[in-house]
Amino acid sequence: METDTQHLHASVGLYLSMMPRSMAWMCDAVVATNRPLIVLDAMQDSRYRHSPLVRNHHVRFYAAVPVATSNGWVLGTLAVMDTTPREYVDIEPLVALAGSIMTFLRKAKAKARKRRTLSFDSAVNAAPGGLRSREANSESMIMTLVSNTALTQVTLAEQQGALASALGDHTDKISRLVQAIARMESKLGRNDVRVDDDGTKPNHV
């Protein structure tokens, strides 16, 4: 089941490999709830009577069970459907078959994992020097990395010390400059002469 498509990995009497998910209302319900669903007559069921699968393909009967992992992850559904409605259906055979499918999938997964492990072990043992040589190389790489990291930290500390010293010198120069400007402003203030609106200096008595 994808965002827009429902894939049919195996089917009997229905010659489709996929269909739009917009047609999969009933399958969506099974995936969402992780519970079996039985619809004896879809035309009489207000939930699904307007489904494209019912209106366009005349499906009347539908029964499905989830194919799910032990932790509740739904991988798909196992479903049967027909254009003829039913009055009763025993869902247990579908439940048992879905369980058999999950058992098969778990065994297939375990075999695949075992093959990958054997392939990895073979590749490691066939490598020049074997696994011990790789471990020694790894230890050497780690020691080199640690050494380089220590040198980097020392260099950074030296650079920080030089930067602090330079900042101290600049701060002292800026402070002296501010004091000089303040003295100049003070002198200019004492030498200011007031001028009247007509541009003449006032007469002081």
Automatic annotation (TrEMBL):
Gene3D superfamilies for the chain: 3.30.450.40
InterPro entries: GAF, GAF-like_dom_sf
Domain GAF residues, every copy: 23-89
UniProt feature coiled coil, ranges: none
Protein name in the entry: GAF domain-containing protein
Source organism per UniProt: Aphanomyces astaci (Crayfish plague agent)
